[in-house]
Amino acid sequence: MSATRRHVLGSAGAVGAGIVFAGAVSELFTGAGAARAAAGGWGGHGPLVPDPDGLLDLPKGFRYRVLSREGDPMRSGEGPVPSRHDGMAALPGPGAGRVRLVRNHENRPDGGTYRVPAVEGLTYDPEGRGGCTLLELDRDGGVLDERVGLAGTAVNCAGGPTPWGTWLTCEETEDRAGTNGYAKDHGFVFEVGFRPDHRTVPEPLTAMGRFQHEAVAVDPRTGVVYETEDAFDHPFGLFYRFLPDRPRGGFGSLRAGGRLEAMRVPGVPDLSAVLEPGTCFDGVTWVPVPDPQARRTPIRFQDFGRGGITHAQKLEGCYWGRESVYFVSSYARSFEGSASDHSGQVWRYDPRDRRLTLVVVFGPDTAVELPGEAPDNICLAPGGGLMVCEDGGGAQHVFGVDRRGGVHAVARNAQNTGTPEEPQYGEFAGVTFSPDGRTLYVNCYDPGTTFAVTGPWRR
User: Fold this and answer.
1) Which PANTHER family match (predicted)?
2) What whole-number distance in Å separates Cα of residue 441 and Cα of residue 432?
3) Phi-psi region of 401 (alpha: psi -120 to 50; beta: other; left: phi over 0)
4) Which of 10, 68, 114, 284 has its CA 20 to 30 Å from the CA of residue 141?
């Protein structure tokens, strides 16, 4: 690990955000992006320019297109575009330059103006308001089609793509049938397909557990699926792995079942207690989950035997890179039950060495007091940067982090849905890049809006 470095965010329109990064940020970069970053780093794209239309502020030389906005009619004629745009992925489409977007809708029983319309053959629970929508884009970025991919689910927050080109969407709830009007149990993962031969089956992948799911990442070599749990109360969530009975089996193979296990770090009951970047833990073990369906007791409350289990507050983003899985704890607050305070952690787990390493810490020596100014959805940029969605009060940004730890505002949500006295700006979510790296796609959670941003991303 390189020496600890600290960089205060203070340029490119982000003055006063007060976010401090500590750790080897270069550790987060992989592949061609890492090579470009090593060649000279990435210093941002300049200050943000106010958008005269009041939607999205971007640096000079960048432009956006609104692909979809809640309440507008979907091209399929199935109803209005649903609300609460959240996790998203961009996959290659059928033909050169074409892109397929899959987008989650985190509609709760009491939230979201527009529900995901119930579509025959694609609806799990007719009382569920969440789900996914699919967008087909032409080579010029225009929307060819927009339709329901999955309906009747609940609080679809994040998820992750599979190596075989599908999307695993996650329910961030543990509501049972009869709760909040639901007809079926919720808290599951579902597989959503695009192609005609990947016809979505609206049935949960129950063996992957019933808990407050956030994100997943799949090891392309072994087919193991890693899962984060964003539990709202103490004891906090766990980090899981799912060992499928049909590893790397392609579309539908996860329905064959498997074994769910939770991570145990010896001597560390709470990851928030670790604040020094570069700290490593060898001998990480995985403990079988006693009752993955949480029939009587939520998984995080279950008895994992001698040695207990390792918890962490706000486990959210998750991605695969450099033969390891990276996962994010967005923040920890001691007054809410965590062992310590921080404004974000990024962890790396190497399955070959069974080693867990704290790579980056956001704070805690920062002026930030609200949990919102912390990492939520993250993705790697083609130019070697790490893109971080901000989630909290006040102005909301997408930040870029370069290999040297420098932080720069890439976009700001200019949509004020409150008042001049009490402005409200919806969080960003679902940041991702097109397969060719030329376009950044990102969602504004509320009002639900999907943007396509083009510009010199590879500079």
Assistant:
1) MEMBRANE PROTEIN (PTHR35399:SF4), SLR8030 PROTEIN (PTHR35399)
2) 5
3) beta
4) 114
Which pLDDT does position 366 carry in this prediction? 37
Query: What average pLDDT does the structure give for the chain?
Result: 87
Q: What is the 3-state secondary structure of 65-125?
A: EEEEECCCECCCCCCECCCCEEEEEEEECCCCCCEEEEEEECCCCCCCCCCCCCCCCCECC
* Helices first, then strands: H and E counts in the chain: 1, 29
Predicted TM-score (pTM) of this structure: 0.91
Q: Which residue has the tokens 């970053």?
A: 37
Instruction: Give 15-60 as a DSSP string.
Output: TT---EEEE-GGGG--HHHHHHHHHH-------EE--TTSSEEEET
Locus of tokens 């020094």: 276
What are the structure tokens assigned to 199, written together? 């016809």
Q: Which of 11-20, 128-137, 416-425 shows the lowest mean pLDDT across its residues?
A: 11-20
Calpha distance 208→223 (Å, rounded): 13
Cα 120 to the center of its chain, rounded Å? 28
Which among 68, 251, 250 has a CA at the least distance from the CA of 148? 68
Alpha-carbon span 22 to 24, nearest angstrom? 7
Spatial separation of the C-alpha atoms in residues 147 and 155, rounded to whole Å? 19
Q: Render pLDDT for 57-101 as a digit per residue (tens, 0 to 9).
A: 999 999 999 999 999 999 999 999 999 999 999 999 988 889 999
Sign, Cα dihedral of 56, 61, 62, 64:
positive
**Residues in CB range of 198: below 8 A, 6 or more apart:** 165, 166, 251
Write 13-16 long-range contacts (CB < 8 A, 24+): 13/47, 13/48, 13/57, 13/409, 13/412, 14/397, 14/399, 14/407, 14/408, 14/409
Round to the nearest angstrom and report the end-to-end CA distance of the chain.
Answer: 27
Helix residue spans in 265-407 (DSSP H): none
Q: What are phi and psi of 7, to 5 degrees?
A: -130, 120
pLDDT tens digits for 185-208? Answer: 999 999 999 988 899 999 999 999
CA distance 182 to 154: 9
Confidence check: pLDDT of 251 > 80: yes
For residue 248, with 0-12 CB atoms within 10 Å meaning exposed, 13-18 middle and 19 or more buried, which class applies? middle
Handedness of CA 121, 122, 125, 126 (dihedral sign): negative
Cβ(452)–Cβ(64) below 8 Å:
yes
DSSP 172: B
pLDDT of residue 360: 82
Residue of 113, 155, 119, 154 whose CA lies nearest to 134: 119
Closest Cα to residue 26, out of 53, 51, 3, 45? 3
